[in-house]
Specification:
The complex is a heterodimer of chains A (179) and B (466).
Chain A lengths: L6 E8 L2 H14 L4 E4 L7 H4 L7 H27 L12 H27 L23 E6 L7 H10 L3 E7 L1
Antiparallel strand pairs in A: 1-3, 1-4, 2-3
Helix pairs in contact in A: 3-4
Chain B lengths: L1 H8 L15 H13 L4 H27 L14 H25 L9 H21 L26 H34 L3 H10 L7 H34 L11 H27 L8 H31 L3 H12 L3 H13 L7 H4 L2 H23 L18 H24 L5 H7 L17
Helix pairs in contact in B: 3-15, 4-5, 4-8, 4-9, 4-14, 5-6, 5-9, 5-15, 6-7, 6-8, 8-9, 9-10, 9-14, 10-11, 11-12, 12-14
The chains are: A alpha+beta (179), B mainly alpha (466).
Amino acid sequence: MSEIKKNWGVLAEFANPAELLHAAQKLNDLGYKKFETWSPFPIHGMDDAMGLSGSKVPWITLGGGLTGLSIGLLLQWWTGAVDYPLVIAGKPYFAWQFALPVTFELSILLSAFGTVFGMFALNMMPRPYHPLDNVPAFRRVTDDKFFLSIEVSDPLFDMEKTKALLSELGGTGITDVEE
Amino acid sequence: MSDSNEIYQKDSIFPPPLVGGKHDFHSVTEAICGVVEKPLSINWLLALGFSSTFLLMLVASIGYLFWEGTGIWGLNNPVGWGWAIVNFVFWVGIGHAGTLISAVLFLFRQKWRTAINRFAEAMTIFAVICALVFPGIHVGRVWAAYWMLPLPNQMAMWPNFRSPLLWDVFAVSTYFTVSLLFWYVGLVPDLATLRDRAKNKLAFWAYGILSLGWRGANRHWQNYERAYMLLAGLATPLVLSVHTIVSFDFAVSVIPGWHTTIFPPYFVAGAIFSGFAMVLTLAVPCRKLFGLEDFITLRHIENMNKVILVTGTLVGYAYAMEFFIAWYSGSPYEGFAFINRAFGPYWWAYLTMVSCNVISPQFFWSKKLRTNLTVTFILSIFVNIGMWFERFVITMSLHRDFLPSSWDYYSPTIFDVSLLLGSFGLFFTLFILFLKFLPAVAISEVKGVMPQADPHWEGYAHKEAH
């Protein structure tokens, strides 16, 4: 059974972070949207070069933190003062002072959950398969190689022109990537 | 040592480079992944065998403890808290250096941390696992240990949130969870490196699943870096809160020598002090054994020794202040507790504590000594011993309480000793496994601090057309 493979996009390799940054800047200036740079470490200035807006992770962190804060206070107040009030060492059933440590810890815990799971969710991870896995050279991206990909779904994408542009920007080993 | 030492000794106003030797991105990957990809060595197996023997001793001792009860320990009537709490506080404290290196130094943009943070975070996690063993097993009726958690039960009772011991449950378990997440997030790009280099199916699948499909997209790095910074920001107050809350276990009681406001900062300083000592105890031999001298350079060792000097001096100051306040408070019980600490039956423990914690770090005023690996290693062991004794000295405040007729002397039994040694077995077994199966140095972070990682590096200058 053979199936017709669709094109996902093109991939080009760049020699170093400077050239990759330069190419990303150029593509952004030209109005490309669905392109991505791939590197073994985050490159300083790349977010601006690609014209990305800020990360949404902090909002999820804040949501997690506020949830933890509420759970911490409600849990200690409801269990101690409502569900089963019990006098222990003459202390009040509930007071914010003694509730602070547990509330603080739960706020941190849920903020951390929000940060980590929020980050993975925004990155759509885990992602076992990606079209780029079909390019053997792409394996070096986690080692020392720098890549740039443009998807065919980008409105400006034109197989010939886009490849020529990537080559002009210094891209080498330009390959079609199948879906 | 020779290579990085030469670089180090040159007089220059600029600090020595963070990565020694002549490395490019690929050679960094090779050097760090090489440790993981090499076949198992006989030395590694011997080390694992040795440490897991002690782990077995821990398991057997815990088994006997569960069978027989806490009566197998040296506890007596005034001393209701023995080595279990000493070991617990000791191990939690060790963990603090890992978080300090990974989170606090990250927020202060101390780039030198990148070489040691993975290592130190692993140490944190394994130390906290060791710490969690002790409150877990000391409860007497282990089958009721879940009462520490707010779970609905047939008695319709809830945990007592007014007790610092319960705060401790939340603090230490949160600390463990957040440290584990922080460590894992840091590991993901490096696990992807190992996945992409995997030579066999098992390694490919194992690292592939763990790396969650990381491929280094810039949109991913953007969220990743933001998340990492937020985690560092969360871990920083967390690490300060953990040992503060641990100190509340003592400070919220009414025992002379425990009921003092100096405890939280004094415990935190001591925790950082002992943790850095443990990082050095592990780092000095490991960099040699695994050929990581270009990454964990003398500059790193010296910086850590400076932290030890500062925190050791802080701890010494706290010891002095405890005495001063005991006298200044005018409370005869408080005064007695401290005179008894220094000159009572446990004078030898107090002397060990002061010599190891206050005197030994003072050698690090000398640049020659703090850049000497042998001296560093020996002094780090002294600090480890001293900080264990600090917790012992504090806990032994119990042995002479308000009522002289109930005074007693605490001596450990063989099971106290086997549990402590066994916890070292657990720690080193986990650490030895970590060194072999995970990258001991953060690969992507080290690449990120190399000069050629900066797109505006002078080597690329001719390409700067835009």
